[in-house]
Amino acid sequence: MPSLQSQKIAKLLKGSGQTLSAAESCTGGRISHLITLTSGSSEYYLGGVCSYAVAVKASVLGVSLSTVEEYGIVSSQVASAMAEGVKKLTGSTWSVATTGWADAYGDDREPAGTVWMAVSGPDGTESRRFESHGSREENISAFADAALDFLISIIER
After folding, report:
1. Domain presence at residue 25
2. 94: nearest Cα among 118, 77, 73
3. What is the pTM of this model?
């Protein structure tokens, strides 16, 4: 069953000529899954990249290794670069990206349960930090929902 967020995205994008793509790390494809549960999503959803490894973030999405080293893999800068990279790769109007720590792992910059998400669109790229402190599965679900809510809020401006 489509989520309320995916139904809202369909209402915003279907028939508008605008398109969407996703770059996911910690959400592991959940955002793409939620979007494609809505019938007709192929009209506006171009696809996504599940870039779990830093090497894929760099080689496919164009995330600079120096950005990862300077700011950390879970950062506003990496999320923004991922969103911009998948937008460029697919030619979409909009993109959404996530990078985070879904469970017990974290680092000295961001604790477990932290995600950085970014939305890139015609007017630039914005990022937001979000935390969830459930199980790995609960965090992934919460991260995806938060990213879709963030995307909707940017598109609706």
Report:
1. yes
2. 118
3. 0.96
